[in-house]
Design goal:
The protein is of the alpha+beta class. The chain has a single domain (4-11, 18-171), classed as Chorismate lyase, CATH 3.40.1410.10. The chain has helices spanning 4-9, 33-37, 43-51, 98-105, 111-117, 136-142, and strands at 19-24, 55-65, 68-77, 83-92, 122-134, 150-159, 162-171. The protein is globular and about 45 Å long. It starts with a helix and ends with a strand.
């Protein structure tokens, strides 16, 4: 199960540098965040369906530790370039075939789309929903107002039955 603090620690010295996180239930998650986050589906597909267009990935930072490839990313709408999701991804390359792993590392295509296009047997498991008061970097990256809060989730993707991808996914309201 992905630990929020472990995922944040991949790219930040302290969790507060990203934001203040409060665990919430699905019932406490307002629209449209509930629709975007409270499910066991790929965020790439969900975000594209919600916004009515494909999204592109921008890798802000990456690191490799043994079998783990981690990255801090933004998803932007192809229609207008607006940021719609911030994420931290940790991929255990031992649990993924070489071709899709290399395509993910190429940083050109969102992870969810790569797994779908390569027909990787996968199961997405929502682990926790979060209400987030973003710190300055996250506000700037996502184009948020000073007091605007957002919601996110931690999730795990099993590939071929193995826990291959740990995720922190934070979405914008529109």
């Amino acid at each position: 199960m992905p630990e929020l603090s472990e995922l944040i620690a991949l790219f930040y010295d302290k969790p507060e540098e990203l934001g203040q996180f409060e665990e919430v239930s699905a019932q406490q998650t307002p629209a449209p965040f509930h629709q975007l986050l409270a499910h066991d589906e790929h965020m790439t597909v969900t975000v594209e369906n919600f916004h009515g267009c494909h999204v592109d990935v921008t890798v802000l930072e990456k690191r490799t530790d043994g079998q783990y490839y981690s990255r801090k990313i933004l998803l932007t709408r192809q229609s207008d370039g607006k940021v719609v999701q911030y994420g931290i991804v940790r991929l255990n390359c031992d649990f993924l075939a070489e071709e899709p792993a290399n395509e993910i590392k190429s940083e050109r295509i969102p992870l969810g789309r790569v797994l779908i296009e390569h027909n990787v047997l996968r199961e997405v498991q929502l682990t926790c929903l979060w209400h987030i008061q973003p710190a300055s970097e996250l506000r700037e990256l996502m184009g948020l107002e000073p007091n605007e809060t957002v919601y996110g989730r931690t999730a795990l993707i099993y590939c071929n039955g193995e826990p291959a991808v740990e995720l922190l996914e934070i979405v914008t309201r529109d």
